[in-house]
Design a protein that fits this description.
Order of helices and strands: HH
Largest sheet: none
Number of helices: 2
Mean pLDDT: 88
Shape: rod-shaped
Distance between the termini: 27 Å
Strand content: under 5%
Structural class: mainly alpha
Low-confidence stretches: none
Number of domains: 1
Length: 96
């Protein structure tokens, strides 16, 4: 059976990145509405793009939030397991 190696630094970096990206997506301004595009065909196309962008940006933000939560859960679980293993090792060594 192989050893399980957990890179806490990588998990922490991944959590920070997912959280940061979610924050960026949440803070993006609505850059399409209220702009005079000139021709009605361009205005219609930009309104469609803006509506689609808002919808998909919200979905991406939700997925990034879910990802950050899952990574945080992994960190908590592995930290707890690591602590339990350490405590058992100390207990075992103390009983010798």
């Amino acid at each position: 059976m192989g050893d399980l190696e957990v890179d806490f630094g990588l998990l922490e970096d991944s959590h920070r990145t997912a959280t940061s990206l979610k924050s960026e997506f949440d803070g993006l301004p609505d850059a399409v509405k209220g702009v005079a595009w000139g021709r009605s065909s361009i205005t219609g196309a930009m309104d469609t793009f803006g509506t689609n962008w808002d919808y998909h940006r919200e979905i991406l933000s939700e997925k990034l939030g879910e990802t950050a939560e899952k990574i945080e859960s992994c960190l908590t679980t592995f930290r707890n397991a690591d602590k339990q293993l350490y405590d058992q090792l100390v207990k075992h060594e103390g009983s010798k």
